[in-house]
UniProtKB/TrEMBL annotation:
This is Aldehyde ferredoxin oxidoreductase. Pfam families: AFOR_C, AFOR_N. SUPFAM superfamilies: Aldehyde ferredoxin oxidoreductase, C-terminal domains, Aldehyde ferredoxin oxidoreductase, N-terminal domain. It comes from Geothrix edaphica. PANTHER family: ALDEHYDE FERREDOXIN OXIDOREDUCTASE, TUNGSTEN-CONTAINING ALDEHYDE FERREDOXIN OXIDOREDUCTASE. Keywords: 4Fe-4S, Iron, Iron-sulfur, Metal-binding, Oxidoreductase. Its cofactor is [4Fe-4S] cluster; tungstopterin. The keyword Iron-sulfur applies. Residues 1-206 form the Aldehyde ferredoxin oxidoreductase N-terminal domain. Belongs to the AOR/FOR family. It comes from the Bacteria.
Length: 576
């Protein structure tokens, strides 16, 4: 029987609750957003006692379904002021699901200055005072917990950035290799820090496991689904070979690679940081060009990157991080970016928000363009030690812009715009504007259709069809985020007719349900409208669904493209 674990940090009590009937058919993002919308006052301070931090595995987490190991975390975001859901790979989602944990809800705030740890197991959750690991980075925390509690222990933790409640702090989750995946966006690490929880340790020994309503039907659907993932050229070939960093050269050619803090659309140093170069470097140094972020991942777009001496430097080395410090900050040395990525993992800070913040800081003259060594020093000596400069950069691109009077600040709802220029790829601009999460490429990844010709083709430089494209993808993504699936299943789902029905068949076989495609679409619509209603109640308006004005006034090379949507055209997104 599934259960809800509730932790009250004000009086340091815990409870095991039955799953309310209205939550029984929900998982992942649908569940975290439903709980936040119901239990969190929209106007509360995101770092105050009335905010709640919710973790929920997806509907298929813990099963043998390929790529189903995502864990959702939700709360009111201290960065955007609106609702936030961020999902991640690692080991925690599958452990929660095997333990029958539908959701873990953390509420309240401790009195005094003490810090705590949560221990989750088959009998529920306990609270323990924590002293020994305070101030340590994420890698040291995971190593210490594995030594103390065993290699199989699941870990959810915050680094020094979360302890300092920096608004770009993330929540780190241990992956199968003992390294880190991140609930990266929206400052959820600061929310966990405000609850004064350093880590959550998970022990699934004796877990009841997953019961399937129809095991044979599940197996049949699972085989079809996995075959679709492997047959698609993006999920079966491009991503496994070059990782997400395959996109550097593709976006450069399309003129959509934001360069020098979104001044240009192409980067002269693209060959030095692209996926092809990264792949050859990894192979030459004895790293791993393929690596799964959770058990059961068949795409394996992650990798392990070694330094020149053949020693581990970083893993999960994503396109958005490489773009952010590479093209956006003009750093053409891949090893410098990899070291910075490692430091951001250890500090527990969002590598997209922080990379864009560095771009704004370079525009402000705080450090030279292209100076990777100074980026590394600032991460270690300023952000890591909580100096005034470090706290400004660690609070995100918007904070840097406001502090130093920069007007070219690429944010929406105060969240940094990721690695695709919305003037040259207009569909993603609609997603940045309208997503309840703030600027988030994963919320409705129009790059698939605008650039990769997946699911058809919509000209990235024209306005026609972009609102509809973003709307359809955001609805689909909200539903996929609720299943515990990786967003990259969207590639075969858009092109291979058998893929999406197989996904729905697995959900039906898991729960004995009779869901249709329309039901799944309806879930996505419900989630989006629920999240938008929370944001409106929190004080956000349609004026927050806009790109910064420089996108309309400053053409970007090579197409001389500008952002030319009217407010009415953007607002039409919500006509469903």
């Amino acid at each position: 029987m599934d259960k809800i674990l509730r932790v009250n940090m004000t009086d340091l009590t815990t409870a095991v609750e039955e799953v309310p009937a209205e939550w029984a058919g929900l998982g992942g993002r649908a569940l975290t957003s439903t709980i936040v919308a119901k239990e969190v006052p929209p106007t509360c301070h995101a770092l105050g006692p009335n905010n709640k931090l919710v973790f929920a595995p997806g509907l298929l987490s813990g099963t043998a379904a390929s790529n189903s190991g995502r864990l959702s975390a939700g709360a009111k975001s201290p960065l955007t002021g609106g609702i936030k859901e961020s999902n991640v790979g690692g080991t925690a989602a599958q452990m929660f699901a095997r333990l029958g944990i539908k959701a873990l809800i953390v509420e309240g705030m401790p009195k005094g200055e003490g810090w705590y740890a949560l221990k989750v197991g088959k009998d529920g959750v306990t609270i323990e005072e924590e002293r020994g690991l305070l101030g340590l980075g994420n890698f040291a925390v995971i190593d210490a917990l594995q030594a103390l509690l065993g290699k199989k222990t699941g870990v959810i933790a915050i680094g020094p950035a979360g302890e300092m409640k920096l608004t770009s702090a993330n929540i780190s989750v241990k992956d199968p290799s003992g390294k880190i995946r991140s609930h990266g966006r929206g400052g959820l690490g600061a929310v966990m820090g405000s609850k004064r929880i350093k880590f959550i340790a998970i022990d699934d020994e004796g877990a009841p496991g997953i019961q399937l309503a129809d095991p044979e039907a599940f197996k049949r659907a699972s085989r079809v689904f996995t075959k679709a993932l492997m047959d698609h050229p993006v999920s079966g070939q491009g991503l496994p070979t070059y990782g997400t960093n395959v996109l550097v050269n593709i976006l450069h050619e399309a003129g959509g690679l934001p360069t020098r803090n979104f001044t240009h659309g192409q980067f002269d140093g693209h060959e030095q940081i692209c996926g092809e170069t990264m792949h050859d470097t990894i192979v030459a140094r004895g790293g791993k060009p393929r690596h799964g972020c959770h058990a059961g991942c068949v795409i394996q777009c992650s990798q392990v990157y070694h330094d020149k001496e053949g020693q581990y430097l970083t893993s999960g080395f994503e396109y958005e991080t490489i773009w952010g410090l590479g093209a956006n900050c003009l750093i053409a040395e891949l090893d410098d970016i990899a070291l910075a990525d490692n430091l951001m993992d250890d500090l527990g800070i969002d590598s997209i928000e922080t990379a864009v913040a560095f771009g704004v800081a370079m525009e402000a003259g705080l450090l030279p363009w292209g100076d990777g060594k100074e980026v590394v020093r600032i991460l270690r000596e300023e952000i890591g030690k909580g100096t005034a400069l470090g706290r400004v950069i660690g609070s995100g691109a918007g904070a840097v812009g406001r502090t130093y009077g920069v007007t070219r600040v690429p944010v929406v709802k105060n969240q940094a715009i990721p690695a695709y220029d919305p003037r040259s790829v207009k569909g993603i601009g609609i997603t940045y504007c309208t997503s309840p999460m703030g600027a988030d490429h994963t919320a409705g990844y129009t790059i698939a259709t605008n650039i990769l010709n997946v699911g058809g083709q919509v000209d990235p430089l024209k306005k026609e069809g972009q609102v509809e494209l973003s709307r359809n993808l955001q609805i689909a993504t909200a539903a996929i985020d609720s299943t515990g699936m990786c967003i990259f299943i969207a590639f075969p789902a858009l092109d291979i007719p058998e893929c999406l029905p197989a996904l729905i068949a697995m959900i039906n076989a898991r729960f004995g349900a009779k869901l249709t495609g329309e039901d799944v679409t309806g879930l996505g619509k419900t989630v989006l409208k629920l999240e938008r209603a929370f944001n409106l109640a929190a004080g956000l308006t349609s004026a927050d669904d806009r790109l910064p004005e420089f996108f309309s006034s400053d053409p970007v090379t090579p197409h001389q493209a500008v952002w030319d949507f009217t407010n009415e055209e953007i607002d039409a997104f919500w006509d469903f």
